[in-house]
Amino acid sequence: MVQVTPFLLVLLLALGAHGLSVKKKCSLPGRWVNDLGSNMTITTVNGNGVFVGSYHTAVTATSNEIQLSPLQGSLQKSLNQKSQPTFGFTVNWSFSDSITVFTGQCFVDEYGKEVLRTMWLLRSHVENIKNDWKATRVGTNVFTRLQSQE
Ligand code: BTN
User: Which residues does UniProt assign to the signal peptide (predicted)?
Assistant: First the structure.
């Protein structure tokens, strides 16, 4: 027992150090909800980082009935792949003549929870160039993974 104890100590230290160096990866596929209550599903990310999905917004700048809308995006695939990658995606709204582009980063927070911090530009259609100045809204959204699949 006297000889075993230092061995165990070294083993535990080694395992502990290994555990600390294993960083949890933030990954995009799955279902997400944002601070407005909008839901987003990212279905697949291919080998080039190109992804598709669908978006159900909780709010609209129009008086139209909200419908599920497609999204297409791209995940940054750097040579030494990052555990908290940057990404961008476009939502082509099915129920309005607007487009939204999102850009953001997939983080793992201090509690090990994945979170998407994004900024967006919502471009609305205007009838003529004189109205261009009021056609773009800007904002931020924070997405967290929907509970059922953590
Ligand atoms: C439109 O109103 O023309 C389309 C819907 C726009 C919804 C915006 S996109 C940015 C913000 N984040 C959301 O989840 N919804 C709003």
Answer: 1-19
For ligand 1, the distance from its centroid to the CA atom of residue 95, given in whole angstroms, is 11
In the reported structure, the alpha carbon of residue 141 is separated from the centroid of ligand 1 by a whole-number distance in angstroms of 10
Task: Give nearest CA residue, ligand 1 atom 13.
Answer: 57
Name which of 106, 93, 11 is nearest 49 in CA terms: 106
Per-residue pLDDT tens over the stretch 94-103: 999 999 999 9
Q: What is the DSSP string of 57-106?
A: -S--SSSSPP--EEEEEEE---SS--SS-EEEEEEE-SSSS-EEEEEEEE
Q: Quote the pTM value.
A: 0.86
Measured in Å, residue 24 CA sits from the centre of ligand 1 at: 30
pLDDT surpasses 90 at 145 = yes
The fold for domain 22-145 equals: Lipocalin (2.40.128)
The residues spanned by each domain of the chain are 22-145
Q: What are the residues facing 44 on neighbouring strands?
A: 52
Sequence-separated (6 or more) residues with CB below 8 Å from residue 10: none
Q: Which residues pair with 134 in a beta bridge?
A: none
